[in-house]
Structures are given as structure tokens and as C-alpha cells.
Design goal:
heterodimer, A: 82 residues, 83% helix, B: 352 residues, mainly alpha, 19 helices
Chain lengths: 82, 352
């Protein structure tokens, strides 16, 4: 029976790979979260702006608030990678 | 528009928000009260400052005084309803369109009544509200026909034509269109109730609301018949589909006193705003006050449902109803002022 042992190089390469997967998941999943949050706000914002042009600034502000979620994800991803 | 998504919750959120903003722009109670102290030209100017500006400006060269207000309100109502229909996406559009069909009934009957009484086509056109499936072009074509029979023939593609065709000969024989109107509305409610099951979001709560609307319509008829001392068979006058069965309504209508009718209604609605109204109401309450109070209850109930289901078909329908009553209120104020009625009397007729 042959027992495979992991060399230091392989372990290091795996760690980098898992970090990359983690970073990808952090950005990807938070991006989906942001999208889910934004679609409702976005639909309402477009509706409100169509009726009242003055609402545009406020509507835009509300629409971008869920962006914070994906920014947190991005920060986590950057911390993981660097 | 085919690329726009018409499924999922986004269309409901979009349309509900638009309708909510529009509802906020409707004339408020204080403004009505201020209008009651104004003269007719002042009221016209005041209306011009609101959503009716375009119509007043456009029509001010051809009309004046009460006519100007009347025609501007009618035009605005039709334009607004068509506009709402235009911005509704997907399944909401179909549902809104079927709900707006009651304007078709109103228009067809107005034309038939006008034509049988020899009113000029131009005069009839002023009061038509082309907000349903029969648009201006179709209505113009109907107005150009000479006889009521030809008008009915021209409506062969209308969804309510089978009822119209069935009831029209009897109506012509009798010379009144009351029964025909009843039958058309019965069919309309049957159709809309069926539509609420078509998968539209908010269909279920809306069905409950429709039941209430039908109930209140029937209650109003019963009370009107009682107050008018009319002893007729009420079964044909009642709309089916509400909380009361036709038999129950017939029993209510056969009541000896007003209190008996109120008790019967209270039994069906042991709590809530209708019960409260029935508690307050008594023999002496005038008919118009009672009717107004019932309408207010209906609108409040609809508001409640639309708050409970904020992203459904309900906010759209609430707006359509409120807009209709806004126009009715403005018309009541304008007409009341023209006839020299005091402000307090006009206020009793407003639904605010």
C-alpha cells in the first residue's frame, strides 16, 4: 500500500487555492444579496421617479444602500487575498 | 416592451409605488373644504393648479363655467384611467382592464339612453368616459349610429354583448334600461370575480373586497327600495357573489322597519366598520348620508386591504376608486355652487 504524503509546496498551493475560492464566494454571494435587495428598491425607485422627478436623488440613494453588502464582501475577499 | 420582465414581484412593486405616489397627489379634505367657500371661477382656478391643468387649459377656449369643469373632469378621468392601463405591466394590466370595464357599461347605457331620448351626439359625447375597453374611436362610431338597435348590433364584439343582446328587446319594450343595466353589472361582477382567480397577486384579498362591494351595493339597493316605499320583487335587482345570498337580501327587503334591516346587516357583520355604521344609523338618517357613509366604509376597507398587501393589485385599484370619487366630489362642488347651495349641504354629499 502506498501512502501519499502532502509536500509543503502542495499544501501551500492548496491554501492559496482555497483562499481564492473563499474570496470568490465572498464577492459572488454578497453580490447576489445586493442584487436581491436592490431589485425591489430599484423597481420602487423607478416607479417613484417616473411620477415625481424630484424623487430621483433620494431614490438613487436608497437604491445604492444595499451596495454596502457587496462592498463588505469585496473587503473580505481583498483581506483573504492580500 | 417585450424585453421588460412582467413576471415576479418587480412589476407589482413598480406599479404599486406609482399608484401610491398618484394617490398622494389627490385632492385632500382641507382643499375640498376651502373650495366650498369659493365661487365657481375660483374653483376652476383652484382645480387648474392641480392635476387638471392640461384639460382646463385645453378646453377653456371652447367651454366656460360649469361646462368647462364638467368636461375637463371627464376628460381627465378618462385620460388618467387609460394612462394607468398603459403603465401596468403583464398580468396586472389584464386585471385592471377587466375592472375598468364597468365604464363600458356606463358609456353604452349613456349612449343608448341619450339616443332614445333624442339627445344630440355632441352632448352625449361630453359625458362619456372612455376608460374601459371601448375607446374613443369605438364610442364615436356608436354615436354616429342612428338607432339604438344599430348601436347594439355594432357592439357585437364587446365581451358583454351576449347579455346586451338578450336583455335589449325587453328594455326597448319597457322603455327603461334599468333592468338591462342590472343584468350587465351582474355579469360584470361575475366576470371580475372569475378574473381574481387568474393568478394575479392580491386576487384573493381583492375577491374579499369585491364581495364587500357587492354587499354594500345590494344593501344600498335594499335601503333605497325601503326609503322609496317600493314593494317589488328584489331578486332580479340583487347582484350575486357577495356575502349575502339573494334569499337573505329578499328577506331583508321585505322587512317592516328600517331597524329590522339594520339588525339583519349587523347580524352578518358582527364587528368592523359596517357594524359601527349600522350602530350609528337610525331611522332618521337621510338616504344620501347613509349611501355616502357606506361608500366611505367601502373605501376605508379597500385602503386597509391595500396596506396589508402593499405589493399587489390592490393599491392600483384603490387609486382608481379614489380618483373616481375625487372627480365625483369636484363635480358635486361645482354643481352645488352653480345651483347656489350652501357649503354645508354640499359637504354632506362629498366622499372624503
Amino acid at each position: 500500500m502506498v501512502v501519499e504524503t502532502m509536500t509543503i509546496e502542495v499544501a501551500q498551493a492548496s491554501a492559496v487555492g482555497f483562499k481564492a475560492i473563499g474570496a470568490g464566494l465572498a464577492v459572488g454571494l454578497t453580490g447576489m444579496g445586493t442584487g436581491l435587495a436592490q431589485f425591489g428598491i430599484g423597481a420602487a425607485a423607478v416607479g417613484a421617479t417616473a411620477e415625481n422627478k424630484e424623487m430621483f436623488g433620494l431614490a438613487l440613494l436608497f437604491t445604492v444602500i444595499p451596495e454596502t453588502i457587496v462592498i463588505f464582501g469585496l473587503v473580505v475577499a481583498l483581506l483573504l487575498l492580500f | 416592451m417585450s424585453s421588460v420582465s412582467t413576471t415576479g414581484p418587480a412589476p407589482y412593486i413598480y406599479s404599486s409605488t406609482r399608484m401610491r405616489v398618484r394617490k398622494m397627489k389627490l385632492i385632500r379634505h382641507e382643499e375640498y373644504m376651502r373650495m366650498l367657500n369659493m365661487s365657481l371661477p375660483e374653483i376652476t382656478r383652484s382645480i387648474e393648479e392641480t392635476e387638471y391643468k392640461a384639460e382646463i387649459d385645453e378646453l377653456s377656449s371652447s367651454f366656460s363655467g360649469l361646462d368647462l369643469i364638467e368636461v375637463a373632469l371627464t376628460w381627465n378621468l378618462a385620460k388618467e384611467f387609460q394612462n394607468v392601463l398603459g403603465i401596468m405591466p403583464g398580468v396586472i394590466k389584464n386585471f385592471t382592464a377587466s375592472y375598468l370595464q364597468h365604464w363600458d357599461i356606463y358609456n353604452v347605457l349613456t349612449i343608448l339612453r341619450g339616443k332614445t331620448q333624442g339627445v344630440r351626439a355632441g352632448k352625449i359625447k361630453e359625458v362619456l368616459i372612455p376608460a374601459g375597453s371601448l375607446d374613443r374611436v369605438v364610442l364615436d362610431r356608436l354615436l354616429a349610429e342612428d338607432s339604438p338597435e344599430r348601436i347594439v348590433e355594432a357592439l357585437s364584439s364587446w365581451s358583454l354583448y351576449p347579455v346586451l343582446e338578450r336583455e335589449f328587446p325587453a328594455a326597448m319594450e319597457k322603455g327603461t334600461f334599468g333592468d338591462l343595466e342590472n343584468e350587465l353589472f351582474k355579469e360584470f361582477y361575475r366576470y371580475v370575480l372569475k378574473q381574481t382567480k387568474s393568478g394575479v397577486k392580491g386576487g384573493k384579498p381583492f375577491r374579499d373586497y369585491l364581495k364587500l362591494e357587492i354587499d354594500l351595493l345590494n344593501i344600498k339597493t335594499v335601503i333605497r327600495l325601503y326609503k322609496g316605499n317600493a314593494h317589488v320583487d328584489v331578486r332580479n335587482l340583487m347582484v350575486e357573489g357577495g356575502g349575502f345570498s339573494v334569499d337573505e337580501l329578499a328577506r331583508l327587503a321585505a322587512s317592516e322597519s328600517m331597524n329590522e334591516i339594520l339588525e339583519g346587516i349587523k347580524k352578518r357583520y358582527p364587528e368592523g366598520p359596517i357594524n359601527e355604521l349600522m350602530e350609528k344609523a337610525d331611522q332618521s338618517m337621510p338616504l344620501h348620508e347613509m349611501e355616502n357613509a357606506l361608500t366611505k366604509v367601502m373605501l376605508d376597507q379597500m385602503d386597509r386591504i391595500s396596506r396589508r398587501y402593499p405589493f399587489s393589485i390592490c393599491p392600483t385599484l384603490v387609486y382608481l376608486k379614489r380618483k373616481r370619487y375625487e372627480v365625483a366630489n369636484l363635480r358635486a362642488i361645482a354643481r352645488g355652487k352653480e345651483s347656489g347651495l350652501p357649503g354645508e349641504t354640499i359637504a354632506e354629499f362629498l366622499v372624503v
